[in-house]
Amino acid sequence: MMSRMSSCMPDRFVLPHPRDRVQRGKRAIRHMRAALAAAMLLCPLAFAGPAAAQPKVNLEQTFADSLQAMPKEELAVTGGFYVPAYSSVAMSQGKLRVDFSVTLSVHNASETQALVVRRIAYFDTAGKQVESYLKAPVAVKPLATISIVIPTDDVRGGTGANFIVDWAATGEIAEPVVEALMVGGVANAHYAFISQGRPTRTVGKK
């Protein structure tokens, strides 16, 4: 029996040096970390938790210096803006999703007249309203601005998010400027771009 067992053993059986085992262990850990980083980069949806609702911003308090008392005169002029926003953007042929923070800014371009903002509503890709940011209309001072910020981790809007901004004034006024600024990045690349609001005018009528 002993001779048979001996014949199955190699001529030389050398145990690996402890230092070699440590080096192999370190290499394995590095490979695991690299694989995990690549998986997180290429498959962000698998690691992203559910988007939680963000605390609502109190525009009256946050932008108190930009606001004034509501005008007592009749609001004879009205208008609205549709603002495309991109809470998330697909890259690398749809294999990678990059999330962005979104800052919506409503600028009163008039030097003399107050701009009344009646509604600021945020919609997702499917057209479902995600948030409404005004409890009541507010009057923006001449050349003043109010803003809404949606943080990067709030991805409820998706790739086709948008805002609707309704405004009014007591008389002739410079058309307000409404735009969304997106800021975000992946790895060492950073991106920022602006989406201009488009007036919601009715077309097709003769």
UniProtKB/TrEMBL annotation:
<dbReference type="InterPro" id="IPR021471">
    <property type="entry name" value="DUF3124"/>
</dbReference>
<protein>
    <submittedName>
        <fullName>DUF3124 domain-containing protein</fullName>
    </submittedName>
</protein>
<dbReference type="Pfam" id="PF11322">
    <property type="entry name" value="DUF3124"/>
</dbReference>
<keyword id="KW-0732">Signal</keyword>
<feature type="signal peptide">
    <location>
        <begin position="1"/>
        <end position="48"/>
    </location>
</feature>
